[in-house]
Design brief:
single chain; alpha/beta; Lambda Exonuclease, Chain A; 2 domains; 7-stranded mixed beta sheet; two-stranded parallel sheet; 11 helices; 9 strands
């Protein structure tokens, strides 16, 4: 449902501006998936400095500018709205370009340089063409609603999530990502490095709480930002989803403790003793074995390497 509420004090599904969402418009400070990722990968102290209601700041212009192309594709591909303001400059070095950019942000628009605007529409056209032929994602954005904000409670804590696309059916949650490489074999590393698996677990909890879907499915639509703007659709296996659900639950429990006690600890005060990963030790053992073999069959590998390399010339001060 559409709302003009300044403060949200009831669980539900809302349509609010993205900027307002990032300010956390809930009656009490709430946990989002992005903050949940920080809780798991850094510490509660980092959470406190990033959360807009706990002393952190909402995204600044540099952050927004990094997101602009993705936001523009979102608005056209998902919402069918052109929110772009074209900045008729080659870059943002001139004051006139900066002023036009800032005015666009103030009007909740997306400023793009002319060359970026062309790229965005090329991405959207490529996405439509590829999705049309996909066995599972064909017509995905023709049914459902874009940019839905879910607000729910688990006990005494508030949680929120902003879903790119929410629809009825066996796969209710769709999330669109832009990237430099949409090859699933490559993007899987980015998925875990950036905590997108936590996002899956977090969104599933919101859909379960508000829509009563016991085991909601989730799909990523991942598209490259350069020609040919290739696209892939990525899902998670049952075991990976189970791990994602556990991570989301852990982040929520940590948040519950911190918000209840108003304490935001950093890293442990005990000394951390680090053991080398097994592959590091194996790598060194392989190097030792190569040198041992060389010394047994000829001279040492170190001497052989030195034989074909000319000595460095001495530099006189």
């Amino acid at each position: 449902m559409t709302t003009k509420q300044i403060i949200i004090d009831k669980p539900g599904i809302y349509e609010i501006l993205e900027a307002r969402y990032h300010e956390d418009p809930i009656i009490e400070p709430s946990l989002s998936s992005s903050i949940a990722k920080v809780m798991l990968t850094a510490s509660p102290r980092h959470v406190q400095t990033k959360h807009p209601r706990l002393g952190g700041a909402t995204p600044d212009q540099k952050q927004r500018q990094d997101w602009d192309i993705g936001s523009a594709v979102h608005s056209i591909l998902l919402e069918g709205k052109d929110k772009i303001v074209t900045i008729e400059h080659n870059d943002y070095r001139k004051d006139a370009a900066k002023e036009a950019r800032d005015a666009a942000y103030a009007d909740n628009k997306i400023p793009l340089l002319a060359k970026q605007r062309t790229e965005v529409f090329a991405m959207v056209a490529a996405a439509h063409a590829q999705l049309k032929g996909h066995e599972e994602a064909a017509g995905v954005f023709s049914a459902g609603k874009p940019e839905q904000t879910l607000v729910w409670q688990e006990g005494d804590v508030w949680l929120r999530a902003r879903l790119d696309w929410l629809r009825e059916g066996p796969i209710p949650i769709w999330d669109y990502k832009t990237t430099t490489d949409a090859n699933p074999d490559v993007w899987v590393r980015r998925l875990f490095d950036l905590g997108f698996d936590v996002q899956v677990g977090f969104y599933r909890r919101g859909v379960r709480a508000l829509l009563g879907i016991e085991n909601p499915e989730f799909r990523f639509i991942v598209q490259e930002t350069s020609a040919p703007y290739a696209l892939s659709v990525v899902g998670l296996t049952p075991s990976t989803i189970e791990l994602a659900d556990m991570k989301a639950a852990m982040a929520i429990e940590r948040w519950r403790w911190c918000i209840t006690n108003d304490r935001w600890p950093g890293y442990p005060r005990e000394t951390a003793y680090i053991e080398a990963p097994p592959w590091r030790a194996a790598e060194f053992e392989e190097a030792k074995e190569r040198e041992r073999w060389a010394s047994e069959h000829d001279e040492s590998m170190f001497e052989r390497m030195n034989d074909w390399q000319a000595p460095l010339e001495k530099v006189t001060p």
